[in-house]
Every structure is written in structure tokens, then in C-alpha cells.
User: Which sequence fits this backbone?
């Protein structure tokens, strides 16, 4: 009796063991070769090869997640280092060294303005080998750094030598060439506000490579967050230096010494309180706190109610007095957006209508808005504490976004496989979903969205799912963005969900977003069919000119009957002809037959009265009654087409026309 063929199970277990050990990609790829060499049957061998490809994708996603976690941990460590530093030189060296480490660049450096000379000089470098570059001085407005300082915005160039967006000079080009720099990213160090309404640029932080490189948005956001910490740390170091200088000057003024010492002690105590509060918030984030924890800590430190809102004005967290309701102190979304923009532009908290508002930023992107419900004016120390809380909240939201993006990317692959080939292995898809926290057997609404800016729509879909109470996953598929949203109600309204998504996604993208929805549906096969129906609905909305709206198949009238999988003919007939059918049934009249004869006669009253064998005045009276029941637009082209289709379907379904 021949031995059974080798099983694929040991090789599948081998893949799991290698993933657990964080083995190299080559080791994972070798499993398929080992299975082939062991004589595993062709069907099982194909399953091993698919499992190997999946394991490689999971390994890549996990490594990317760990790399981002390491970057954010380094950023949090930087916050602690800067908060503990008192010497300005140590602060600047720590900033530049950590910037180079965070982005993994060949060099990093920081320039500061020289108020007396009227130019900018290279204050600190890390990784530099050129003496000429280290001694470089720049006139205001020159080079990439000049562009960053003038616009108070980050700029990146993959190749400095060929980039004409900024003014090249012989002096700067010589220094950059001697250092061998090619790709450069520069971000401003912003503090306070200037007369023009933008943040005051107190320096520029750079990260650069000696080979062409494109800096990603995440890298720009990380360097901007570090720059925000750096600006606060530099301001703190300068304030402490000013305090020491004031102490030295006051030492000789015996008559005013007592009063001056009291003022200095108060100032020092306020500075220490702000630094301790910053350390407390940073430690809270490192220990795994969330936005609610940050709001609670800040509200306690400032002894005032506090709310945190997303860019659209929706509350993310609230700390209010016992018994208070956020709705009782509701804010106009337009007012909140306008005030947050003023805070973002000025790079500081603003006081409006008895509230303090501070924008939470990652670079120039608005992540959230902190609102302190405090009518009194904040002193400088409390205002700085409030602004530092916004920086820490930004770090927390960036971390949460990074984790959400990684999880959504892995789950999105499941959605792509579900929509591509649900019939191949529905049980396997359901099991993959359970491992990823998605119960495909639970009712889901399926939304398909499209917009002119597809990249922005993908990011907006993630923010839409991540920022609210919606539980779902998104994926890009066939030129659209698909959202799978869990719902507990079997009768959940797909049309309402589509309209809500269209409105909020449009606000996030700042452009019209069209959304078609179907469901609820459950199971891989139903969900795949629901996607096909939603895609047809989206095409119909495009043809009908309903760009920027949300709808479901049932709301498209007769087109819904044509497009929908359910083919709810009776529902369409009742929705269209219901008033006439009920009127005829209750009163024994002939309005349905009259309407059919009128359309059949091409709108001719004479031909219609001959068909009905009644006087022409009777036809007119019946049409007037039809107008009362159906509305004045019953004979408009689009409505007339629906009515004629409903009449034909009613006849085919066995509806009786009385003579």
C-alpha cells in the first residue's frame, strides 16, 4: 500500500513560525521551494505559495509599523530631552541630532537669524564634513532656507541643484556642493505671531541626503512636530537665560531687590509649572493614554472645562462640570473653523467670545482643535501650557493615525480580495476577516465613493472612519474608494448613510464626493453582490448629474428597478401609482386606466376619450384629479417616463384596468 502524499500543513506552520521569529524575506520565500522539493501535491502547493505571498505582505506591514513606532518613540524621547535641557547649546545640538536620527538622513543642521548682522548663519550641524558649509552665512531670502523663512511653510526638494523655486546664489551653491548635498527638507521653527498674522520664524531646521530622495508627507509631519518642540525649547532656554540675566542685573539694585526677587521667583515658578505640565502630558502619551486622558489632564491643570474637536467640528473628547451637557454650550461650526484658522495662521492660542481656541497641527495640516471654556484671560504661563497641550495632542493623533493606517491597509487587502473573487473561498475570506477583527457575517452597509482627487479621498475615508463612532474599513478598488461599515440594524437606511458620508467626505476633501450605498448585506457573496449594485448605482448617479450627492438604488426611481438586484417591482409600482390605485379601489373610479389611455394616445384628449368611450370633459376632469393626487409635475418628461413604466409593470404583474 503506497504512502499518502506529503501534507502542506508542516510548511504552513513553518510560515507562522518564521513570522513569529521575524525571519528575513528570503527564509519565508524558501518555504514554497521546500514544499515543492518535498513532493507536496499541486493543489496544496498552490495554497502554500498563496500563504507565502500573504506572509510576505504581513511581514512588510509589520516591519513598516515597527519602523513608525520607533520614529514616534524617538520623537517622544526628544520631547523629554528638550524639556530637561536648560543650556541653549545643548538644546540645539539635541534638536539637530534627533532630526537626523528620525529621518535617517546623511546630515541635519539648523540656522538662526543674526539680528545685528541682518543675515542668517549656520548655528549647529550634525553629520557635516565640509568646513565651508559649516561656516556658511546666508542673506535673508536666499536659498531653500530663505523660502521656508519667508513663507513660514516647509519645503522639500529631491534635487537642490535643479530646483528653481528659490533663489540660488554662488555662495550657497558652493557650500552645498562642497558638502555634497542633493535632497533637502527644511521646516520653520515658529513661535508667537507677527504683524502679518503668521507665526514668527525663529530659525529653520533641515534634514538632507547626499543622493536624490523624495521626502514623504509623514516625514515632513514628523520633522514639523520636532520643530514645534524645538521652538518651545529654544524659547524656554532663552527665557531662562533672560531670567538669569535679570537676576544678575537686579543683584546690584538693593532698594528694589525684594520686589524684583519676588517677580523672578513668580516667573521661575510659572516656567517650572509649565515644564512639569509638559513632562506630565508627554509621559501620559508614552504610557498609552488617549485624547480623553489628555483633555482630563489639561482641564485639571487649568481648572476649566475643555473640549477637543476634529477639523469638521465634531467633538472627540470633553471634560465638563458634573451634569453639564456639551450641547448646552454648543458652538457654531463656522465660527469654530474660522477661529481655529486664526490660531493655525498665528501659531498660537486665541481668545474669542469667552473661550480659548488652539489649533492642533502637524506641519500645516489641522488635526484637531482644543477649546478651553474660560472667560478670563490666561497669563503667559497658562497660555503656554495650553499651547503645549496642543503639541502633545498632535503627537498622540499622529501616533493613532499611523496605527490606523497600518491596520486599515492590512484589512483593505481583505476587502480587495472579497470584491475580486468572493466565490473562490468564501469560508476562507470570512475566517481572515475574523482574524482581522471584521465579522463579515454581521450586517454591513457597502458604500462606493468617487471624487476628482482620488488620493485625497483615500486619506479622507480613513479620517472619516477613524475620527467618529463609525466601525468599518476602507480600500481603493477599481478607481473608487469602497467603505464597509458595520451596522446592527437590519433596516439601516443605505440612502441616509450615503448622504452623511458624501457630506463629511466632501468637507474633508474640500471637493464634491459622490457616494452610492447598498445593504445591509452579510457574508462574502452578498457583500460582493452589494458592491456590484452600488457600482451600478454610482454610474447611474454620474449619468443623472448627481455629482456630490449620496443615494441608494431605491432612491433612483425607475432606474433603481433597472439597476437593483432585488428587482422590487411591486414597491416601485406602489411608490409611483399608489395614490391612483388606492383612489380607484376606494371609489370605484378609473383613474389608472384613464392615465394609461392618455399616455397611449400621445397626450391627445380626443383619442383618449375615444379609447375610454367617455366625453372629453370627463377625461379632463379625471386628469385634473390625477394632478391633485400625483402633483403638478406628473406630466413632466422624467416623471411621465416613470409613470408609464409603472403602468406597464402594473399591467404585466396582473393589475386590472376597469373599463
Assistant:
Amino acid at each position: 500500500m503506497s504512502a499518502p502524499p506529503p501534507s502542506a500543513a508542516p510548511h504552513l506552520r513553518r510560515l507562522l513560525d518564521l513570522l513569529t521569529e521575524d525571519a528575513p524575506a528570503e527564509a519565508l520565500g524558501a518555504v514554497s521551494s521546500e514544499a515543492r522539493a518535498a513532493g507536496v501535491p499541486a493543489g496544496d502547493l498552490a495554497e502554500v505559495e498563496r500563504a507565502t505571498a500573504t506572509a510576505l505582505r504581513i511581514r512588510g506591514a509589520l516591519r513598516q509599523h515597527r519602523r513608525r513606532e520607533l520614529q514616534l518613540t524617538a520623537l517622544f524621547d526628544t520631547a523629554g530631552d528638550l524639556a530637561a535641557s536648560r543650556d541653549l547649546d545643548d538644546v540645539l545640538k539635541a534638536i539637530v541630532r534627533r532630526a537626523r536620527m528620525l529621518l535617517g538622513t546623511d546630515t541635519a543642521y539648523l540656522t538662526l537669524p543674526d539680528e545685528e548682522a541682518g543675515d542668517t548663519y549656520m548655528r549647529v550641524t550634525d553629520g557635516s564634513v565640509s568646513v565651508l558649509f559649516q561656516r556658511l552665512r546666508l542673506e535673508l531670502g536666499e536659498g531653500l532656507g530663505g523660502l521656508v523663512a519667508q513663507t513660514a511653510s516647509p519645503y522639500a526638494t529631491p534635487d537642490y541643484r535643479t530646483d528653481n523655486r528659490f533663489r540660488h546664489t554662488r555662495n550657497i551653491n558652493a557650500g552645498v556642493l562642497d558638502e555634497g548635498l542633493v535632497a533637502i527638507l527644511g521646516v520653520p521653527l515658529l513661535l508667537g505671531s507677527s504683524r502679518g498674522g503668521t507665526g514668527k520664524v525663529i530659525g529653520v531646521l533641515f534634514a538632507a541626503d547626499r543622493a536624490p530622495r523624495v521626502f514623504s508627507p509623514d516625514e515632513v509631519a514628523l520633522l514639523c512636530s520636532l520643530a514645534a518642540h524645538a521652538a518651545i525649547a529654544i524659547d524656554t532656554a532663552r527665557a531662562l537665560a533672560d531670567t538669569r540675566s535679570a537676576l544678575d542685573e537686579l543683584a546690584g539694585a538693593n532698594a528694589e531687590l525684594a520686589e524684583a526677587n519676588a517677580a523672578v521667583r513668580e516667573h521661575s515658578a510659572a516656567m517650572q509649572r509649565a515644564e512639569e505640565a509638559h513632562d506630565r502630558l508627554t509621559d501620559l502619551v508614552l504610557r498609552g493614554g488617549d485624547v480623553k486622558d489628555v483633555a482630563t489632564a489639561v482641564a485639571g491643570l487649568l481648572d476649566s472645562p475643555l473640549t477637543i474637536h476634529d477639523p469638521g467640528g465634531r467633538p472627540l473628547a470633553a471634560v465638563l462640570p458634573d451634569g453639564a451637557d456639551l450641547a448646552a454650550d454648543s458652538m457654531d461650526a463656522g465660527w469654530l473653523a474660522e477661529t481655529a484658522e486664526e490660531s493655525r495662521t498665528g501659531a498660537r492660542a486665541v481668545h474669542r467670545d469667552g473661550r480659548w481656541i488652539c489649533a492642533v497641527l502637524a506641519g500645516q495640516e489641522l488635526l484637531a482643535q482644543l477649546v478651553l471654556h474660560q472667560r478670563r484671560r490666561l497669563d503667559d504661563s497658562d497660555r503656554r501650557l495650553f499651547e503645549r497641550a496642543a503639541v502633545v495632542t498632535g503627537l498622540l493623533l499622529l501616533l493613532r493615525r499611523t496605527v490606523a493606517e497600518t491596520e486599515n491597509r492590512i484589512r483593505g487587502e481583505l476587502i480587495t480580495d472579497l470584491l475580486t473573487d468572493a466565490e473562490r473561498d468564501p469560508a476562507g475570506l470570512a475566517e481572515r476577516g475574523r482574524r482581522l477583527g471584521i465579522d463579515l457575517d454581521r450586517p454591513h452597509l457597502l458604500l462606493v465613493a468617487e471624487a476628482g482627487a482620488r488620493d485625497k479621498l483615500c486619506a479622507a475615508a480613513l479620517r472619516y472612519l477613524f475620527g467618529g463612532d463609525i466601525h468599518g474599513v476602507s480600500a481603493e478598488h477599481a478607481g473608487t474608494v469602497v467603505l464597509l461599515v458595520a451596522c446592527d440594524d437590519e433596516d439601516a437606511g443605505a440612502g441616509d448613510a450615503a448622504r452623511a458620508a458624501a457630506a463629511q467626505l466632501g468637507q474633508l476633501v474640500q471637493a464634491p464626493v459622490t457616494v452610492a450605498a447598498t445593504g445591509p448585506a452579510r457574508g462574502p457573496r452578498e457583500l460582493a453582490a452589494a458592491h456590484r449594485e452600488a457600482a451600478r448605482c454610482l454610474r447611474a448617479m454620474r449619468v443623472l448629474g448627481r455629482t456630490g450627492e449620496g443615494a441608494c438604488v431605491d432612491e433612483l426611481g425607475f432606474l433603481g428597478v433597472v439597476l437593483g438586484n432585488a428587482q422590487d417591482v411591486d414597491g416601485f409600482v406602489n411608490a409611483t401609482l399608489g395614490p391612483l390605485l388606492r383612489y380607484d379601489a376606494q371609489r370605484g373610479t378609473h383613474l389608472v386606466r384613464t392615465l394609461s389611455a392618455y399616455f397611449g394616445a400621445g397626450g391627445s384628449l380626443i383619442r383618449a376619450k375615444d379609447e375610454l368611450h367617455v366625453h372629453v370633459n370627463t377625461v379632463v376632469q379625471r386628469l385634473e384629479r390625477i394632478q391633485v393626487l400625483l402633483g403638478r409635475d406628473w406630466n413632466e418628461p422624467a416623471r411621465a417616463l416613470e409613470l408609464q413604466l409603472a403602468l406597464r409593470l402594473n399591467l404585466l404583474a396582473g393589475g386590472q384596468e376597469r373599463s
Remarks:
- The two ends are 83 Å apart (CA to CA).
- Residues 254 and 260 are 10 Å apart (CA to CA).
- Residues 42-84 form the longest helix (43 residues).
